[in-house]
Amino acid sequence: MKKKxxxxxxxxxxxxxxxxxxxxxxIGSFTxxxxxxxxxxxxxxxxxxxxxxxxxxxxxxxxxxxxxxxQESEILYPLQTKVLENGKKSEELLSxxxxxxxxxxxxxxxxDEIQQHALLVLAEYLDKDRSGLARSIQxxxxxx
Length: 144
Hints:
The chain is mostly helical. It has helices at residues 10-22, 27-41, 45-48, 53-126, 133-143. It comes from Aquimarina gracilis.
């Protein structure tokens, strides 16, 4: 890595050295980290001059609140609306399914009763010698 020199006044150099020492780094690595920080955050060091920390926090706070309000209006509210709509549709479909199943089961039960009655009539006809066939079939049907 090729090293370069920069010219800064003695007060800034003293402040830089103090900051680097406080963070247990060399002046070079601390300066490189500062450059990376300003590059990644997009923060302009000139914008900070003359402003107190509380003023800067208020600006950041307003940005964050604005970001959350935007997310809320553009993402969360539409998402909530869709979830509620889907919940209502699911309830309607479930109710329809339950009704349809009840109708199907009642038809099956009715067919079963008709088939059971036909089976008993047939058993009585076949049970001419009174061997108990009709009674046995009736007992099986009653148990089921």
